[in-house]
User: What shape does this take?
Amino acid sequence: MTQADEAKYWVAFHLVPYIGSNRLQRLLDRFGALDRAWTASAVELRTALDERSLASLLRCRAEIDPDREMSRIEQAGIRVVTRQCPDYPGLLTEIPAPPPVLYVKGTLSHQDAVAVSIVGTRRLTPYGREVTKRLATDLARAGVVVVSGLARGIDGVAHEATIEAGGRTLAVLGSGINVIYPPEHRNLAERMTESGALISDYPPDRDPDAPNFPARNRIIAGLTLGTIVVEAPARSGALITADFAVDYGREVFVVPGSVLSDASEGCHRLLRNGARIVTSAADVLDDLNLGVPHAPSAVQKALPLDEDERRLLALLTSEPQHIDEVADAAGRPVAQVAALLLTMELKGLIHNAGAQHYARG
Assistant: This one.
């Protein structure tokens, strides 16, 4: 039997309630292959399954056509990667009860063995946006695959910055691949399939549901050598990802924030509990023995500055400042400062951190 023929039975079993990773392994141990388990008699199946899972299988087996299910998946441009496939992510095999089936749109690669996740709050601050962009950009330039969850906030910024830097990024979804959530990230998701992949362990048409998101965080942590938490309030899904990383023996890196900011309360708790502090991609690369990031290009920075630009640059720091604050400090009209900032951004001297906040570098 070919790998594709075998995969359709993995998909079929994946659709059966109460048959997860452990029961699937028992079926494999008992029958040697899932096609034989799918057609086995109730008496034979009872030697591997409890009564509840057996009843569920017998009921679903009468309703599920493995060939039809596989055809629908392939027509949607989705690949099925089972635990027995050679391109199943190696890092994921190391976690307890790795997902038996992954649905993938895009490509998996040997590069994915060098991956770091970046996670954080959906309600990011300008500071969080800027830090995430810098970390993702520098990691991507160093050849590190960036993994996140395609959520609003930190996740979306991490994916976007990685793509803009020419890097590779993976998104682990809390829904099926045919149901992109949040919907405003559909375009981003499509772009990701060209430079990475969308990954889900939920059937392709599964709607997003609150319990799905903490569960998918185990895969984000499992796919990576380490997890970076940029901003996380006291109750945050990012903290769940960090907990999984600790359980798997992976590194947890935390970006410190303002002690006055609720957005970093969870981050500071992680730091108190022994997580590694990170202020740049170089910290992560050094701790993971991955070398150093490429130095940023100096071409744009070599462009000459006029006196007004020089004065304005002196007022900016690595901490994002609102344009009104910059204009007040410079004693210039906002419109004039906006024009200068745009020119400086084009020269690569400053970054627009979003919401009219600007920072050096």
Summary: Residues 35 and 139 are 43 Å apart (CA to CA). The longest helix spans residues 126-141.
